[in-house]
Design goal:
Layout lengths: L9 H4 L4 H10 L20 E2 L30 E10 L11 E4 L6 E2 L8 H6 L7 E7 L8 E8 L10 H17 L10 H14 L6 E10 L4 E7 L3 E5 L4 E4 L4 E3 L2 E2 L2 E3 L2 H9 L3 E2 L8 E6 L5 E5 L1 H4 L4 H14 L3 E4 L3 E4 L3 H4 L22 H12 L4 H17 L7 H9 L13 E10 L12
Protein name: Protein phosphatase
Catalytic activity: O-phospho-L-threonyl-[protein] + H2O = L-threonyl-[protein] + phosphate; O-phospho-L-seryl-[protein] + H2O = L-seryl-[protein] + phosphate
EC number: 3.1.3.16
Length: 456
């Protein structure tokens, strides 16, 4: 792997005022990555453990999620709508928050992250978001107005590149087929389960003759209009639920060993036969191995799904600090001495079509004084765009993970784990990888709680 040189963590400290958070953060504070000399990085383990005898002993990392009440119909539950955005950046590519962020607006597009209107593999490949071997999708469930959504992130296993297989084909196809299955779901939305959706997507990928081999991790979710969300996680992609400036839930990675996550796979018969001759074995997990958890979303909750490009470089507390600062500074979370931190009634506006525009001055000058042609051409376009709170949070997490991955002096979770397993290698810094983030904010219809105008 090639790592880029460390440069300042302007992303996390750029927001000194609310205007800076909303205006500068999305299209100016994430500085593009600069080129640098290569640095040795440990890449993800190969999809194949061959021979089996060489596999280092390791503990069983398969553990259950922290769970809340199971999915059930609750007539008294308030109606919850989900405001969703995604942000992604391929490995070795510059990150542009305005370009690499995607708002899910179901009235305009039934799905984002995938091309559901064509079956042509070449055309679908051309329409992929700039996420590298990572993939994501957000879609409606069914053709009606149930208010239910399906969403997921997937991370193609890079080890397949050694066998001349594009790892992105599997992950993007998996998300594409899951999105199609969710959109064409004709039963009641509460009957769609996250693990079932993962199984259907995997079966269709296996049946796709244009994908002869490959593998991917996945984290899949299905949300109902009463706030109930079911998550199915396979591998080291995962989720974090944040509620009122605290981590309420987080997923536990499923791994066979260090840097070797659970993964869905397609093993060609020829490669399987060769492995059996030499006594080897391929990593081959299935949707039934996914860990399932059920959550009850409340007004103001923020659910983050991300691939290991985020979790290898940011821990849960890092993500909590990023999300909390944006939620508080935009007024989405308010704080008083009497009630403590509470969600705001203005979430409808902050996450709606107007987004964060009302928080900006009527006419704001460009934050950059540069007279270069690139800044002149980019600034008007960026100012014309309307950014929502969910896209701000998704871009903030993706941007900070991007910076951390290139920082040779900042040891992230992956570096600390590598030092524990291989103390002699003295691995330091971040882990350069593809990055994908899906941010889901729960908004209760008719909520009339505290707003920034009444908060002390």
């Amino acid at each position: 792997m090639i790592a880029l040189a460390s440069h300042s963590r302007a992303c996390s400290s750029a927001c000194s005022s609310l205007h800076t958070v909303v205006r500068d953060q999305l299209w100016a504070s994430f500085a593009p990555a600069k080129k640098s000399s290569p640095r040795r990085l440990t890449s993800r383990s190969s999809f194949c453990l061959a021979p089996v005898a060489r596999t280092p002993p390791s503990a069983d990392y398969r553990r259950a999620f922290h769970t809340t009440a199971p999915l059930s119909s609750q007539s008294s539950s308030p109606r919850i709508s989900y405001r969703v955005a995604a942000s992604a950046s391929g490995k070795g590519r510059r990150f542009y928050p305005s370009k690499n962020s995607y708002d899910f607006i179901p009235d305009l597009h039934p799905a984002i992250g995938v091309a559901t209107d064509t079956q042509d593999p070449a055309l679908r490949r051309k329409r992929r978001p700039d996420s590298g071997e990572d993939a994501f999708f957000v879609s409606k469930v069914g053709n009606g107005d149930s208010g239910a959504i399906a969403f997921a992130v997937a991370d193609g296993v890079g080890g397949w590149a050694e066998s001349r297989v594009d790892p992105a084909d599997f992950s993007h196809a998996l998300c594409g087929y899951m999105a199609q299955s969710a959109l064409t779901w004709d039963a009641p939305a509460e009957q769609l389960r996250a693990k079932h959706l993962l199984q259907v997507g995997y079966d269709q990928v296996v049946a796709d003759k244009s994908i002869p081999a490959g593998g991917s991790t996945a984290s899949v979710g299905v949300g109902l209009d009463d706030g109930q969300i079911e998550l199915a996680n396979l591998g080291d992609s995962g989720s974090v639920l944040l509620r009122l400036a605290a981590v309420h839930h987080y997923s536990v990675p499923q791994t066979h060993g260090f840097n070797t996550p659970y993964q869905l796979s397609i093993i060609p018969p020829r490669m399987r036969a060769q492995a059996s001759i030499f006594g080897g074995a391929f990593l081959e997990d299935f949707p039934r191995d996914a860990a399932v958890t059920n959550l009850q979303m409340q007004h103001g909750d923020v659910l983050v799904l991300a691939t290991d490009g985020v979790f290898d470089n940011l821990n849960n507390q890092d993500i909590l600090k990023l999300v909390s600062s944006r939620m508080v500074l935009t007024g989405a979370w308010t704080s008083t001495e009497e009630t403590g931190i509470q969600p705001s009634a203005d979430l409808h506006q902050l996450t709606g079509p107007e987004g964060l525009a009302p928080l900006l001055p009527a006419s704001s000058p460009s934050p950059s004084t540069s007279t270069s042609s690139s800044s002149k051409s980019a600034s008007p376009k960026a100012r014309d765009q309307v950014y929502s709170l969910q896209s701000l949070i998704a871009a903030t997490i993706a941007g900070e993970a991007k910076l951390a991955s290139m920082d040779v002096r900042r040891d992230g979770p992956f570096a600390k784990e590598a030092q524990r397993y291989y103390p002699g290698d003295w691995y330091r810094g971040g882990k350069v990888d593809d990055i994908s983030v899906v941010c889901v904010i729960a908004v209760e219809e008719g909520y009339s709680g505290p707003s920034p105008s009444t908060a002390n």
